[in-house]
Here is the input.
Amino acid sequence: MSLGPVMLDVASTELTDDERAVLKHPLVGGVILFSRNYDSPEQLLALTNEIHALRTPHLLIAVDHEGGRVQRFRDGFSILPAVRKIGTIFDRDKAQARKMAREHGWLMASELRAMDVDFSFAPVLDLDYSSSEIIGDRAFHSDPEIVADLGFYYAQGMHEAGMAATGKHFPGHGYVVADSHVAIPEDERDFDSIRHRDMVPFARLVNNGLSAIMPAHIIYKHIDKRPAGFSEYWLQEILRKQLGFQGVIFSDDLSMEGASVAGSYPERARAAMAAGCDMVLVCNNPSAAKDVLDNLQVDSNPVSHARLARMHGRHAITPAQLHRNPRWQQARTLLSSMDEEQTLDLNF
Here is the structure.
């Protein structure tokens, strides 16, 4: 059975019989975890092992684990700083900031790989315009060249830990004030303004082999009336053709308000896939996920299957092996001065 094009979530720290049956549905290809799915490292490892044992090839397991306000697992994990702090260091010490970005990516990815999580949706490649509360310090910097630079080192660290990197939120979420979780944001800039700033980090990392990209639920009104994640223009003409991107395109969560313009949940899924997404996310709404699985009809796409298969985690490692690795303690020490206590509640 190949990986299906739908990623969904589960309710708690253990699978129910109903969830096991849903995860065996041929349209399912992945599971995204949230803070509610975590109690301890031992519990998490048991959960990921059970999910992976359900199918061959095993379902992808993903999480949003950026650090700062967005870190799903905390007790038993290293507390990761918001990456904007690394950008601040870059302004006075480029070499130190690059090292921190690389070790931040490596530490995040290594600890997740020790829990058999395949990948985190990271890094954020948006720019910090000091206007978007939902992005803010999740972005490395306001300068696109610096974001591209630090994003490259961060993704390199992830790769060294055996994890594929996912740049988000293409072509850029940092400029708009509205939060696409609860609103339908519109960006009024023209294409050249976006291309010469927000798209720079994405273009640079695509040139360096970025594995995956997640588009924004934002309408760039002078370019396309549809949000980027539902736009053939953004995903096919710009991302695939002009930038030459060959990796996975993940939709952002179809349960977000920014996706509501595409219609019902099955209509949202169909529109995202028609635009060019390889996998769609349906989170925090089990009835919507069931509606998508019951009503989505898609032709088998071997190209998408191959792309998704490359998102499986590599370099299997146990927690004990990781903790014996001198790099683990060195990375923790390097980043410990930038601990971030505030959390951003984008999950349940």
Observations:
- Confidence is low (pLDDT under 50) at residues 340-344.
